[in-house]
Amino acid sequence: MVLSPVIGKLLHKRVVLASASPRRREILSQAGLRFEVVPSRFKEKLDKAAFPTPYAYAIETAKQKALEVASRMHQKDLRAPDVVIGADTIVTIGGLILEKPADKQDAYRMLSRLNGKEHSVFTGVAIIHCCSEDGQLDMDVCEFHEETMVKFSELSEDLLWEYIDSGEPMDKAGGYGIQALGGMLVECVRGDFLNVVGFPLNHFCKKLVELYCPPRREDVQRVKHESIPAVDTFEIASDAAQGDEGCGPSRAGVDGHSGQAPAGPQGPDTNGLVENPPPFPSDLLDLIDGFKASKALFTACKLKVFDVLKEEGPLKAVDVARKINASVCGTGRLLDVCVALGLLEKTDTGYGNTRLASRHLASEGACSLHGFVAYHDEHAWTVFTDLESAVRQGPQAAAGRPEEDPSQSRDRRLRFMRAMHGLTQLTARQVATAFDLSRFTSACDLGGCTGALARELAREYPRLKVTVFDLPEVIEHVSSFHPEGWQPERLHFVPGDFFKDDLPDAQLYVLSRILHDWADDRVHELLSRVSRSCKPGGGLLVVETALDERRAARASLPAALNALVRAQGRERSLAEYRSLLGQHGFRDVQVAQAGDRLDVVLGTRASSSAP
Ligand SMILES: Cc1cn([C@@H]2O[C@H](COP(=O)(O)OP(=O)(O)OP(=O)(O)O)[C@@H](O)[C@H]2O)c(=O)[nH]c1=O
Asked: Which of 46, 72, 89 has most ligand 1 atoms within 8 Å of CB, for mutation?
């Protein structure tokens, strides 16, 4: 991707956004930048009259915000971040600088001034590079500003007050937010829209190009010859990024003398034209590092970091370390990695969960994937270590290994149940509603484990009675997955083995994430048992992640690999599932997707079992 080399230059640095503005945070994170947020405590009270232009004021305020954060962080742990970014947005009209309104009257005064006219929005930005040596903090400041012209329509008093009463103006320069309701006030915009919202992303990227990838000498010569500005597009950055020479932060760049070509050998080509080296492989490097990210997530889950922070966050690293009984240094690093992975947030008061982490990574809660993560950490991780032999020898390599049977030991079984419970809860609604199942009044979820899908089916279809049929040693533990005294309506559990025992009577049979666990002969055996139990007009619902070309390769990748490392089971394509159902007397086979990872196949039992 063309842009990634620019932002990629900051990926391996500790970057801090010295701003409390949620808009700035969003703009930068959507651009792929990884950073911590440390709002500045600098009071925005510089004497405006002392500045020759409004933007000089915005730049200075941005700089002071960033400097305050850099020196505070340095003082605190004698380790300043590598880069601190500060910004300040102001609105100007008729020589007047408008910042955030103090109250509703103030907002009204501002909006009345802007009404029907064109005004300027300036954002000043400061990028500070910090370097601490022997306890001393050295800082290089790079600063710039961007101007955007915004014209308001003629607006009625009523509309202005309605807008003010919405509360939106209060934390925004000029008393409006162009990205939300305030967009209705705006007739036209000349310049960078994001600059109005709070951060001039385009100019920022160009600045990064200047700082980290000054053009090579031959580019400068060619450019001069063609009289095109030296660095004006991100593409130049991506091109310049691959060579060793010319990349990396340069003091010259930071000081603003960025048009200099760096010294160093340049490789001339044969025709006097410089060949474009290949783009910098940022995505590939991320891929190489991917396993570390998974392991960091697994470890934080195992140590219950997300539980601790859900209950008591935000907390400092030292407090988290105490609570999880781990070293302060190790915990601090793990927490910082979790921040970089977008699982935690770091502010002045300490580390806190993101919503994603609280919802899915803490061990309790309807959407918890904690058990699923633990299963991957303790089981899948080990199994995938053997991927090389599986690839060399095919799935028989896995067959030679004693299969990890989830029902072999109590602990392993419970771990597997927790994984399935979390995952099924997350997708149960999508599965239950993938088809209209209201014509059925009874269903049997074969291998339905803790009843997470059965419960959703009963909830979705008020006439439906659902039986969960699973091994006795599984049913025995079901109550520990539900609140005490749980007595679900129209849902009951029957112990049994679907290969040996009679299947409970039902109009609809469900096989959710079951078939991929079994080799073809066992799948046929199971389907023929289901087919014999199912009355004509009854249904079979199969839920699987199919190997399917329609789905993005990425989403079906784990399934493709699982098939290699699993001893007996295998993943199948949708065509195979259709054909399997057909072979066992199910007609009108339909397919739907439940979310982006699951396929649901529904067939109706024909009156004759002949294919
Ligand atoms: C014109 C306009 C402004 N804003 C917001 O106005 C705040 C300006 O104030 P600031 O002093 O630059 O920033 P802050 O919010 O106080 O944060 P900080 O960086 O900590 O000073 C920033 O939020 C901007 O997004 C919008 O969201 N939309 C708009 O259309």
From this structure: 89
